[in-house]
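Weekly structure sync, notes
Attendees: PL (lead), two postdocs, one rotation student
Agenda item 3: pending single-chain targets
PL asked that the sequence for the first pending target be pasted directly into the notes so everyone works from the same version. It is reproduced below exactly as submitted, 70 residues in total.
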Amino acid sequence: MLIVNDIQDTITMKNKLSSLLRRSNTFGMSKSDIQVELDMIISDLIENEARIEHEMAKESFVGWGRYGRV
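Predicted structure, written out during the meeting:
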């Protein structure tokens, strides 16, 4: 099961995967072509994951002073 953060993430993933499926049928993409497309989608997801984790880490330290929670 694919878990996404919010409705926008869900719509984006649906559109990307639907587009890949449609193009693979329309243009007769090979297995290798589809793998390249999936790799690009996965790379985007990895970048988004890193960005979100970075933002969450910054937020978790907001409000913390030298000796703990301020």
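Discussion points:
- The radius of gyration is 18 Å.
- The first helix runs from residue 7 to 26.
Action: rotation student to compare against the earlier draft before next sync.
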